[in-house]
Design brief:
The protein has helices spanning about 15-30, 45-50, 60-75, 105-115, 130-140, 165-180, 190-195, 200-210, 220-235, 245-260, and strands at about 5-10, 35-40, 95-100, 115-120, 150-160, 215, 240. It is of the alpha/beta class. The chain is globular.
Length: about 260
Amino acid sequence: MRIGSGGIMMPNHSTLKVAENFRMLEALAPGRVDLGMGRAPGTDRITAAMLNPSNHFAENDFVEQLADLRNYFHDRAEPGTIQQKIRAIPQVQTVPAMWLLSSSGQSGLFAAHFGMAFSFAHFINPVGGAQAVQTYKERFQPSEELQQSEANMAIFVFCSEDEEKVRQHKAVMDHRFIEFERGRGLSPLGYDDIKDVAYSLQEQDRMRYNRQRVVAGTPAMVKTRLSQLAESYGVNEIVAVTIAEDFDDRLESYRLLADLFLN
């Protein structure tokens, strides 16, 4: 079993701190650690500034972080820089698998340049992902960590043998997306909380668009749709993100997915 994180938003963190945290994981589980990294703060500008007051939201800062991170992992530094005086502790022989995350495709270009793996966030943006992965593969430059391109895509997935649960899950997700786009954030809710909500025509258009970010259905439906997405993306791995109000429904969804693809 692999461990790690699907999303460290690098602008929110010290590069050295990220390097040391993941070196510790490598010391505990060598060769089994994934480090997924994003260039967006993952929140609004005010919150991002509180997380990292020195954040300038500059693309070059992210590129510099990636270069520094690799140097920390390999105990080296660019000549003449302050990094020559710094070492990431603990020092270990292995390096975590580095993935760049993207919902636009731009970080796919960075991943290709640095020779890192690439994950497209279809659950954020359901448009353009397949082309972003293809461009990444075409421009990939082998690195000391990764000799061949490696990519996957991530999407919201809910699997259930109960068609009524599937219908209710879709309705709840529809509402969640609309509330988030209204700037109201996320809060716990169930189907009974939203079943009588009326939506404007514009909101209904957004709901149809957002449903592309989710695969929800019975096992046969889910397997067909995920297989289609994997083929269109040209990947053999999908990151399934399951949100369910009932914890047992979430576990059951993952169990069904495992039965579909691992057995």
